[in-house]
Structures are given as structure tokens and as C-alpha cells.
Amino acid sequence: MQGKRESIDSVDGTEIGLLTDGAGPPLLLVHGGMCRLERWAPLWPLLTARYTVTAMDRRGRGSSGDAGSYRLDAEYDDVRAVAEHLRRGAGRPVDVFAHSYGAVCALGAAAQGAPVRRIALYEPPGPQTVPAPWLERLHAFVAAGELGRAVGSFLIEVIGLPREQVLAMRDTPMAYDPLPIMANTMPREAEALSTLDLTALTIAVTQPVLLLLGGTSPAWAPEITRLLHEKLPESTIAVLEGHGHEAVDLAPDLVAGALGEFFADA
């Protein structure tokens, strides 16, 4: 991924790393769990051809710093701080596309009044995503240093990937090692989800929202997506048939097309 690297300070002083490239209206990308901003590589050339795209490293990974203790609303502050930084540069509110846990962060930022014009969210998780038995297994794996088993458990039990696909991923080269990210961030993010009231975040969100949903995603994804659709007054659902939670990686053309239609509809 090519672009200009910079960083800003969030509300609590945590440094948030950014990568920006492209030309056009401002678009902010907020990644999900167990990854960093390089996860947008499949979409990057498609989006930078149409927008000035900024991808942020969420706190605790990549080029971003971290705080001594974790608060989910600090992640809302991070997204809001980046959006305000981009608005100052562009002279207009930004559009946002956020995936999975990042979608929760983006929704929370919008609820806090971030300068956002339109928001596209791909399958934000909630308490349904992290049932107590799985959460206990996650903590046990991480405590025992069995990070590979923790990753496999997440991908198979939570994301719904076939076991064969997860085994094949072990031999796939990656731009970064997900295991340290898993150890540092997954337990705390899963704990935050377990008590999250997603509907409370929707009360103050008045912007148009696109809810992207994979047609083959695990049961928690359509449940939460439909719940948000009921609560968000200006929301629409777009189902990507034949794809699951990872369509950003496996069907970037399809995702980019849906985003292009939504962000152009002003």
C-alpha cells in the first residue's frame, strides 16, 4: 500500500497512525479486529482511484500507540479525532467505511458528533458475537500462549470460516503477523463487545448509513444488521450474496461498487 504516512494525537494523547493516498472526496477506512491498516490492500487501488482515502491504524497495533488501560469509547474518540483532522484538510465532512469491530468504533464516533457525511458499516459485532463459552476459551488460549489456537478459534467459531480455509491460511504470506495483535487486543475487544449496547449508539446518529451484509455470514451478523436497520432512521441494507464476513478481501470489486453507489448518492 502506497501513500503518505502521518500521525495525529487522539483525545487522550495516544498517537494514531494514518496512511493517505488518492484524489477526490475524503474517505476514512476503519479496520476491524486482529489486523492493522494493511488489511485494506485489496480495496486500496479501487478506492484511491475515486477518493482521497485515509486508513487509520486503530490503537494498540501498527503505527499507532496505546494507553495503559482500555476503554471502547477511547476508540470512538480516535475515529472522531481522525475525522476532524481530515475535515480540516478537506474543508468538508468525511465519508467512512468501517469493517467489523471498526464499524462499532465508527458508529460510536458518529454518535459523539464526528464530522461524518455518510457511513458504510460491514457487519458490526455485538454481544451475540462473543458468547461466554467462547470468550472463556479465548482467554485460556491467550493466557497459555496458544495464540495460533486463539486465532483459529476466532476465525472458525466467530467469523464462520471453514476449518480447511483456516488451515490453508497458515501458509499464506501476510504483510504483518496477526499473533501479537491477537494477544494485545482481541481479549479486551471481545470483553468490550460482551457488554455493549449497540442500540444506544444509534440514538444520536442521523447520517445516512449503509449496512453491508454477507449472504453467507454467521447468524450474529444478519441479526445485528437488522437490529441496527430498525434503529437507524436513514439506513439501508445491501446483501452481498455468496460472500461472508471477509468480502473485503475476497470480493473487493463488489464491495467497492456498493460503496461507490452509496457515497455518490448525495
TrEMBL record:
Q: Which residues cross the membrane?
A: none
Pfam families tied to this protein: Abhydrolase_6
Q: Which Gene3D superfamilies does the annotation name?
A: alpha/beta hydrolase
| Organism of derivation | Actinoplanes regularis
Record-given protein name = Pimeloyl-ACP methyl ester carboxylesterase
Q: What is the lineage of its organism?
A: Bacteria, Bacillati, Actinomycetota, Actinomycetes, Micromonosporales
Taxonomically, the superkingdom here is Bacteria
User: In the record, what terms sit under GO molecular function?
Assistant: catalytic activity
The segment(s) forming the AB hydrolase-1 domain are 27-257
Q: InterPro entries recorded for this chain?
A: AB_hydrolase_1, AB_hydrolase_fold, AB_hydrolase_sf
